[in-house]
Amino acid sequence: MVDFKNAIKEYYEREIECIKRFNLDEINEAMNVILDTYNNGGTIYVCGNGGSASTASHMQNDFNKGISEYVDKKFNFYCLNDNVSTMMAVANDIGYEEVFRFPLLNKITDKDLFVGISGSGNSKNVLNAAEYAKERGAKVVGITGYSGGKLKEMADYKMHVAENDMQIAEDLHMTFDHMMMKIFYNYLTKGEITGNNINDKH
User: Fold this and answer.
1) Domain that holds residue 30
2) Residue 201 lies in a domain
3) What pLDDT tens digit does each residue of the chain (202 aa) get?
4) Is 77 strand, coil or helix?
5) How many domains, the chain?
6) Which among 68, 100, 148, 198 has the fewest CB atoms less than 10 Å away?
């Protein structure tokens, strides 16, 4: 049997160190703009490529069902990478760099929020959509890794993992989703600001 224990420990120790370096003020600001968009009835558009696409889809599920099941006022998340047919048509006929911007055309407004997820922060299709969102008056949340790239520079709000490792960045991006889900659930259903488990289903 191969002994992987030290490598396993090393991997998770790196994640723990990343978490310790989180900018909690920035994350708190990003959470507040998500909550403000929800309270104002806006749509929260989210997208990413590859593993980040999975995170975006998971985020839509956790807010639109996971929290919304228990509150009268529902979240309105829209995952731009979940419609494969539209994505492929835009990619084939216009260009892959337009797959996230195209669905926003004349739809996103200054009531809405754009959440772009990119490990490098330099995914052209995410940047194009973020730029268009800002042109329309919408705020932008950038969820990034590495140095944050162009997305971190242009984002109004940031949730950043300062680590040059895509797997660790993607791991911790997913924790942002679950952390927000739990805290918002507790806040909206119990009026309590806590990350503890109040409802056993969550």
Assistant:
1) 24-190
2) no
3) 999 999 999 999 999 999 999 999 999 999 999 999 999 999 999 999 999 999 999 999 999 999 999 999 999 999 999 999 999 999 999 999 999 999 999 999 999 999 999 999 999 999 999 999 999 999 999 999 999 999 999 999 999 999 999 999 999 999 999 999 999 999 999 999 999 875 555 4
4) strand
5) 1
6) 198
Q: What share of the chain is helix, strand, coil (3-state, %, to 5)?
A: 55, 10, 35
Structure tokens, 136: 């329309």
Q: Does a structural domain hold residue 199?
A: no
Residue 13 counted as domain residue: no
CATH number of the domain at 115, please. 3.40.50.10490
Q: Is residue 124 part of a domain?
A: yes
